[in-house]
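FORM 7B: Structural annotation worksheet

SECTION A. Query
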Amino acid sequence: MVDLGWDDAADVVIVGGGGAGMRAALAAAKEGSDVVLLEKMDHPGGKTAMSIGIITASETPYQKKAGVKDTHAKHFADLAAMAKAAGQPVDVPATKFMIRECSKEIDALHKLGVKFTGPHPEGPHGTPRMHVIQPDCRDMAEKLVKACKKAKVRIMCNMPGAELVLDAKGEVVGVRADGPDGPKHIQAKAVVLAAGDYSANTAMVKQVAPKLKLAEPLRAFATGDGHRMAMRIGAATRNMARVNTPQMRFPGWPHVEPSPGLVGAGAVLVDGAGKKIKTVLDESVLLPGFEDRWEDIFIVIDKATAARLAKPADDVGPGRDGWVRTGKPFIGTAPKVGYAYLEDCRDWQWHHEARSLAAVARHIKCTTGALEKSLGKGSEGPYHILGPVRRVIANSGGGVSTDFDLNVVTPDGKPIKGLFGAGVNARLISFMGGHGYAFAWAMASGRIAGGNAAKHAKKVKL
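SECTION B. Predicted structure
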């Protein structure tokens, strides 16, 4: 390699310190590489630390312990059926690869001290496959940080990746990071991009999905740094126009998305003035009447509605299956339990219980009269107020194209030497239906990309 006046050097440089980046760092360190991990925030964790923490997997020890018979082949059949129903093509080899590798993460994370509950049902899968991290992903992220430090990974915070550095042959030989003290050039034998999605990059979202109704991003740090860095050197991308339709989420942790069944069960959505919002929930999409709303929204559940929701007593197992057995709605997918019932919400700051409508009005800061009009005369307490919730863009679905080694590729399919991707910076397949795939792929792709980056680095001479 040519000496370009480097400030530092490492065998492998990881751009992004979320779950995918830390898994990549650990895999590279295990192969004997000297690893630098660049994190744009003041502490690693990224989207992973905000995640529900679900891995949908087959042939796992948790399934076997619960007496659930499952195979990767059955898993693929369910995914293929889901893709067909959604009108999406299925890349058979890539999907089977994802299923195998994501399922391995249950054991891999368990060895790092991460525990799960499950398997829980995960419709429309025909077999319980949802595994939920305990107690939550914040704890898991800290376990990954500790494991990285133990493995001598050099974690550099407040250091967002800015540009990839190429040599005369077009091979990646380093990274420029723009830290608080100015640019820092780090020489690398291999680089892994694991910098998350672009849901907070308004300019990029407008460019790739011009018809999408904009909303505030759930994660302000998700600015697509890895996408931008890869695209600038000619990397291919996939599904960049697939940006999630704005949806309702609780801005406070955990960032639960309300279940589509709540409105049908009788829950009422009101604004800060107590006025009823005439809309319906359908598979996370807020239908007509909501697209241009930016204000705080509250979900009010009265006594009669609460009686129509699933309860812990409805569960038989394996996992939290009461909502499936009874057909009653749950509140939303959530950490620890997989599916949150009303009883679980008492532990979270966005839940408030009130004995009277006047108490509900005081909490929302509206008039009792407005709530009486919105909820109807037959409404009785106790009441549960969930919120505020806000209309947000939670994720973007497009990514950097890679091959099966997680080597980033050009539009003609040729690998860019020295550059690997993980998480959404490794868009290997087009369809990831249901819960638990994006998170699982972040973990699995990080492990694969980090290991292969380290193997590539061994062949490079500085």
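SECTION C. Observations
The longest helix spans residues 437-458. Residues 159 and 421 are 18 Å apart (CA to CA).

SECTION D. Sign-off
Analyst initials: ____
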